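Project outcomes to date are best conveyed with an example. Our students and postdoctoral researchers have been running inverse folding experiments weekly, and each run begins with a structure described purely in tokens. The record below, which covers 386 residues, was selected by the lab manager from last quarter's runs and is presented without edits.
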């Protein structure tokens, strides 16, 4: 059952547990209450980013002493103000107890701070959905948080009491940070992928706790992902082999599906470097946009192409432009797209183009594969009797 908000990185939880072990309970609680009473107001917020500064300015006596100890003994990695998530985890999973007024590690707590991978962490990972995230990432080559969200929402529906979309998203984000810190997944830009270390950890857990139903579901999803990967490559092949005119009309269909108005393919004899035009909605403002289409798949688009498109904007009374290619963009082109003081240009490479086509059902036929899992919780619930 997913329970922990403000999910922490285990590295900070371990450091905090080691510091708390043997500390007087009242000293830590008094310090925390003192810090929490200094939250500030929406009009006058308190900055907690520099413990070396705020501990000396805002705390005195024993409260300051305990805060300094947490900060310095953790090699300045555990900010005393930002330990609520660690405290939730420690309390919910009984990693520490109070004995004669002092904190003392439980057996679970001793195991938790021991080996990098241990049965207590595995238990928590299972209950808090981290294994679910690893399973999702193991089925795809890489994905953004948005790509994980749909399955994560379904999972939390049956394994938590979470209701608000913003809370569900935050629970996912913080658990991803935890897995990155442990090097089970990596993030490049906005894309998350599972590492070899993460795959091995997932395999070890599934081998230790075999579940035929989950195993069959994983194999089914892997087969679907592999099939979709093959279809993506086939879509790329068709795009590269179609005629330039047909390619431009495919882009026209895509833009229309994305909500652009008055989308037109320009005349080949008088396009002035622009292949498609359209009107997009930018908030409450309608914006004329020009699109240059580069079917080229052999080399990256360079900066001169961007400069030429910017030079054509005024000829179409356009405010912004987009370049769409099956290949990619050079570093110089990517930097020029965000050049200060210049008209904004959006760059869409081959991978993003294919994702957009699939998302908008252009050139594909979406299929739905329905399968069912038994809701075990339903059979555990007692029927209400008047």
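After processing, the design step wrote out the following sequence:
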């Amino acid at each position: 059952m997913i329970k922990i908000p403000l999910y922490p990185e285990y590295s900070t939880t371990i450091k905090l547990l080691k510091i708390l072990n043997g500390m007087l309970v009242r000293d830590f609680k008094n310090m925390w209450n003192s810090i929490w009473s200094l939250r500030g107001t929406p009009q006058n917020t308190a900055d907690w980013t520099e413990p070396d500064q705020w501990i000396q300015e805002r705390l005195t006596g024993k409260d300051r002493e305990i805060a300094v100890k947490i900060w310095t003994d953790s090699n300045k990695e555990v900010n005393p103000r930002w330990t609520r998530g660690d405290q939730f985890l420690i309390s919910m999973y009984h990693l520490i107890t109070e004995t004669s007024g002092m904190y003392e590690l439980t057996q679970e707590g001793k195991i938790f701070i021991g080996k990098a991978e241990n049965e207590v962490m595995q238990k928590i990972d299972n209950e808090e959905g981290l294994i679910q995230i690893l399973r999702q990432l193991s089925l795809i080559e890489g994905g953004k948080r948005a790509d994980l969200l749909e399955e994560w929402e379904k999972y939390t529906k049956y394994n938590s009491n979470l209701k608000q979309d913003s809370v569900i998203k935050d629970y996912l984000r913080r658990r991803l940070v935890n897995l990155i810190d442990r090097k089970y997944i990596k993030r490049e830009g906005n894309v998350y992928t599972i590492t070899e270390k993460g795959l091995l950890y997932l395999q070890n857990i599934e081998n230790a706790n075999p579940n035929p139903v989950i195993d069959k579901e994983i194999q089914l999803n892997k087969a679907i992902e592999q099939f979709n990967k093959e279809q993506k490559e086939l879509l790329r092949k068709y795009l590269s082999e179609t005629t330039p005119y047909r390619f431009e009309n495919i882009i026209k269909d895509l833009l229309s599906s994305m909500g652009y108005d008055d989308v037109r393919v320009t005349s080949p004899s008088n396009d002035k470097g622009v292949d498609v035009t359209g009107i997009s909605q930018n908030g409450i403002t309608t914006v004329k946009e020009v699109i240059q289409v580069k079917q080229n798949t052999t080399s990256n688009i360079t900066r001169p192409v961007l400069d030429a498109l910017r030079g054509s904007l005024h000829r179409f009374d356009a405010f912004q432009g987009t370049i769409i290619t099956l290949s990619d963009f050079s570093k110089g082109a990517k930097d020029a797209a965000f050049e200060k003081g210049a008209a904004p240009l959006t760059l869409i490479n081959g991978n993003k183009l294919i994702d957009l086509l699939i998302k908008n059902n252009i050139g594909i036929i979406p299929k739905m594969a329905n399968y069912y899992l038994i809701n075990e919780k339903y059979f555990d619930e007692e029927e209400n009797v008047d």
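The beta strands are 96-99, 102-105, 185-188, 191-194, 261-265, 276-282, 285-294, 320-325, 345-348. The CA atoms of residues 288 and 318 lie 5 Å apart. The training component of this project remains on track.
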